[in-house]
Amino acid sequence: MSTYLPTIKQLQYLVALHEHGHFGRAATASFVSQSTLSAGIRELETLLGVTLVERSRRVVRFTQLGEQVVEKAHRLLREAEDLTDLAAASGKPLSGELRLSVIPTIAPFLLPRILPRLRRERPGLKLFLREEPSQDALDSLHQGRADCVLLALPFDTGEVGHAHIADDALLVAFPKDDPRDPPAMISPASIDEGRLLLLEDGHCLKDHALAVCQRPELGGSSTMIGTSLHTLVQMVDNGLGLTILPQMALDANILAGTEVVARPLKSPAATREIALVWRKNSPRASDFELLAGELRAG
């Protein structure tokens, strides 16, 4: 065994630099000066006797070995965090710091209803929230930046623990008094591909909407995309087309102040599953189960 081993701090600096691709931004994210972060990475390179990062004035480029070391560093940091979590889990249930990533098609509709009660009933819980698309949220989970993720299934999550929160129906939204006013139950086959408005790539709701319609070719033919459900609603309200919205957003009054109406889809698969996921075998699994229960109760 080597007499000297990399420190957790050195590995954290290296991972931060890889994530941000810039010494200044990585230092800011690590709450240290740029010189401290740079010195820490140089010490790591000296310790290992290799070059991990090629430096220039404008570009930070990791060597092939540097990429492999970063991958290993992610795993080691996750294990170190699991060790801390193991100790935390032995204390009061659902307390201490917890980092939760939530996807944008859930966060603004579910969290305002849940958070006040969590703060009131779980005063020992310090919740750090991060809103990001599904794949980014799962990357944060597997790389240790998040402890758990609130997202919608089906989606490829990798090896995770999982707790069901709710089933969320999907409906078609269109302008009120539209001359092509559809019937009370809308057949997916009747959706005009030239009028369908979708979220941009990276949002799982786009894939869910296309799956419900059983017409994946619409993903490439949609002429307009939105960055959020609120943007899509405004586009529909201005007569630009129709879109698909989750019941959760309707319950949160996303259509308030608009001339947009929504009707259910005539499809047995017109739903998405809201779920909480976490790294498989996490020592805080019981905490995440408790959090899932709190989310279901909301």
TrEMBL record:
Domain HTH lysR-type, residue spans: 6-63
UniProt keyword ATP-binding, yes or no: no
Taxonomic lineage of the native organism: Bacteria, Pseudomonadati, Pseudomonadota, Alphaproteobacteria, Sphingomonadales
Name of the protein: HTH-type transcriptional regulator EstR
Family, per entry: Belongs to the LysR transcriptional regulatory family.
Any GO molecular function: DNA binding
Cited InterPro entries: LysR_HTH_N (IPR000847), LysR_subst-bd (IPR005119), WH-like_DNA-bd_sf (IPR036388), WH_DNA-bd_sf (IPR036390)
Domain of life: Bacteria
